[in-house]
Amino acid sequence: MNTMNRRNFIRTGLTGLAGFSVIGSRGMNLNFNISEALTVDKVDLGNSGLTVSRIAMGTGTVGGNKASNFTRLGMDKFVELARYAYGRGINFYDMADGYGTHPYVGNAIKTLSREKLILLTKMWTEEDANRKESAETILDRYRLETGSDYFDILLMHCLQKSNWPETRKYYMDAFSKFKQDGIVKTVGVSCHDLGALAEAAVNPWVDVIMARINPFGTAMDGTPDAVKAILDTAKKNGKGIIGMKIFGEGKHVTDSERQQSIQFAMTEGNIHCMTLGLENVAQMDDAIERVMKLA
After folding, report:
1. Phi, psi for 286 (deg, rounded to 5)
2. Contact by Cβ (8 Å): 237, 278
3. Contact 153, 118 (CB under 8 A)
4. Stretch (H or E) spanning 120
5. Is residue 180 part of a domain?
6. Is 131 inside a domain boundary?
7. Which residues contact 153 (CB under 8 A, 6 or more apart)?
8. Taking the model in full, what pTM does it have?
9. Would 1 be classed as within a structural domain?
10. What does the pLDDT profile of the chain (295 residues) look like in tens digits?
11. 20 to 30 A from 127, CA-CA: which of 1, 82, 114, 148?
């Protein structure tokens, strides 16, 4: 791979370095700490058999209809940011069809060693009776878009009912076949409902859970205590747990809120790692520094 010069990238991609600040969506001045010394460590993702970077590069901020803030960066800027993340130890890329980021990640990783990466994607699922396209066809398209023969993690996206094992049996069987064929290493669910999450915590089919967790209860499936208790059960059952919505969909991004959110995720959230939608180098450096000081 081509080694990127960090200082040149920051100088050309951002205004200034020390004491860097941006204006947030609510008009607040947000200061970011910049540190070159720290790189993200690796953790075992429960009993999944995967070892992943403690931070995943999320690509779904304001995502939907095959677009997100990351696709809106443009291909070149996205690739630079994804490569920068890799240089800081983040080898874990979190994608979904709805974000439109498969080709973007594919371009970013095409000169990297696939064996050193963790690729996660999600498949939107319908109730079995409403299925319009085969899971095999969808996954083949994902593989083509990313240029990867396999995915490390494949999740059913945005489950909102506790009865998903009955209504999504077709997909569960298809995902299991993908594992058997070696084109997916682990399977699981991304939950947007407390009942769906509680089912995932005990269901033996699930290897990996993506769950919404932050200390404010913002954009979560229940109170922080309720979610923490379910994730504790999931952890004891060997599930790999990825935290999402760590900053409450960007609603808690002042300096103190960022610190509170990261500390909660690292010390109380019952997660193994977290996916963060870090849209520029300053945000990435700030998050890495906060996470690694607590690791």
Report:
1. -60, -45
2. no
3. yes
4. strand 118-124
5. yes
6. yes
7. 48, 50, 118, 119, 120, 121, 184, 185, 186, 187, 188, 207, 208
8. 0.88
9. no
10. 333 333 333 333 332 233 333 334 344 445 544 455 689 999 999 999 999 999 999 999 999 889 999 999 999 999 999 999 999 999 999 999 999 999 999 999 999 999 999 999 999 998 987 888 999 999 999 999 999 999 999 999 999 999 999 999 999 999 999 999 999 999 999 999 999 999 999 999 999 999 999 999 999 999 999 999 999 999 999 999 999 999 999 999 999 999 999 999 999 999 999 999 999 999 999 999 999 999 9
11. 148
Closest CA to 245 of 277, 270, 267: 277
| Surface-to-core class of residue 137, CB atoms within 10 Å of its CB (0-12 exposed, 13-18 middle, 19+ buried) | exposed
Place of tokens 């995932």: 200
Instruction: Please name every residue paired with 190 in a beta bridge, in sequence order, or none if there are none.
Output: 210
Do the domain assignments include residue 65?
yes
Tokens (6 digits) for 14: 């951002």
CA distances 149 to 141, 182, 184, 190, 290, Å, are 11, 9, 9, 22, 34
List the alpha helices (DSSP H) in the chain: 6-13, 75-87, 102-109, 135-146, 164-167, 169-181, 194-202, 224-236, 255-267, 281-294
Q: What is the DSSP letter of 97?
A: G
Count up the domains in the chain and report the number. Answer: 1
Q: Rounded to an integer, what distance in angstroms lies between the CA atom of residue 139 and that of residue 146?
A: 11
3-state secondary structure of 216: coil
Distance of CA 92 to the CA centre of its chain: 8
What range does the domain containing 27 cover? Answer: 6-294
Q: What is the dihedral of CA 255, 59, 51, 269, to 10 degrees?
A: 40
User: What CATH number corresponds to the domain at position 265?
Assistant: 3.20.20.100
